[in-house]
Fold:
Amino acid sequence: MIVSGHLVSSPSSPSYRPELVDILKMKEWNIWKTNFGGKKPSSALPSSKASSCLEDDETKPGSYEVLKSDILCSSTNRYLIQDFIGEGSFGKIAKAVNLSTSQDVALKILKTEDTADREIKMLDVVRILDPVKKSMVQFFERFDHKGQTCLVFEKLDRSLFDFFVEREGRPLSLNEIRPVVHQLLTAFDALKGIGVVHSDLKPDNVMLVNHSSTPFRVKLIDFGVSFKTTEKMQGMTIQPVGYRAPEVILGLPITEAIDMWGLGCLLGFLYHGQDLFADCEYQSMKGIVEMLGQPADHLLNDGHYTQIFFKENDYWDEPRWWMKTPLEYQLETGIEPEKWQSPLRCLDDLIIHRPEMEKAELEDRRAFVSLLKCLLRSDPNNRITPGKALKHPFVEMDHLWKELDTGSYADDSAEKMMIVPDYNLDSREMEELQKPSVKLPSNDDSGSDSPQSCSSLLSIKIVFDTPDGAEPAAAMDAIGSAVSQGAACPAETSTNDVSPDEVPPARVKMSRMKRIRKFFGRTIRALFGKRTRE
Structure:
């Protein structure tokens, strides 16, 4: 299925590597026939004419159609079109190879300058972010080819939508969803930091990087309808209908909070196997009212389009607004609402819609639904921000750490999170581990001249670097020794300068140490197990 905006690869396509650099030097047609087969493509010319792509173009803008095997040239690179993998009103998405470097890329070929201007503007803003750590597609360059603007991106694997289709609609597990959530929240947190709203989140615009080698490593793509938070977008029609935030439907002021609503809709789709809300504005608003409750009166009072979906209560009691019936909506707009049955009565139905295998999984479901409720709040001012969502128990797995090494579900959760960039321990633990040494109060009168520090735990990485390696048991003993001797972070030391209310309970301290020990234990076992297999 071809969906606009895909940056995907085709497993059946031939793999082109360094030998492609020599194609421009080839004069024999049989070389082209070997690579492409069948009918001779229009651009398969002898090398004396292959460089014609560098000559001045006299074609009218937008009238030239790029074909398979064409060579498109920027000021520094030449790109060979291998296949077309997406198409829409904006233009085409092509799988290509950079003939100078043999790097596979994705080319977005836009038909008009008007289509390209906004996306190029936003890509120039977004490219200051680290595409790896912030989980966003990497943009290489833009150039013009015979009246068409071409954007060059890194080539990714396939979209979450295509992946879902390959699974025949089978929903993802929470352990598979969690790393996706973490990466998208990181991306949206970064966008919020530079004042950008993506506004087009849907399964088609979240790409797997390379699912075979890094399962559920994803990146956010398509900034064609993104905008700065400083732009006035109230009343504009943006976002896919089934992922459209209530403030967009009602014509309220628009902020980056719409991306959090879109994320909630995406997570519901991935876990439940179908969209939470209809692809029809009336039915979508009706589903919001039935599943989440009617938006507050102060929101409906200020909405430019409120009266399209609601009517005022003539009886002067609460609520002030009533949802219109499908017939009333049709009489008002002339549009007959689509037939739609909401898949859930409320979000809590997700907790019991699958039989749980372990107690840990049930707790995980409750944490997931809690996050969904925070993302799908009708009032954008009360909706959770990406920064706070990154600290939500579902994302940080607070309820699962105690189950590590004792339950398969918790172990699988931790393992799948390891593909997330920089995810080893959560950021708070890593900050505390790296703090300077702090002397601990002694348990005897003599005291101690050798203070312990959490940072000492990091020294066990030496075990990993030794040529012959050390026994896992020895490494575990080292960790156990550090913990038993009272290795602690500054926040857990002397309480002379803080009030009792600020001192963490003892059980928190023990839980943290246990958490650190379990993490390093799992890492060591995984490492030595891998060495044994090798």
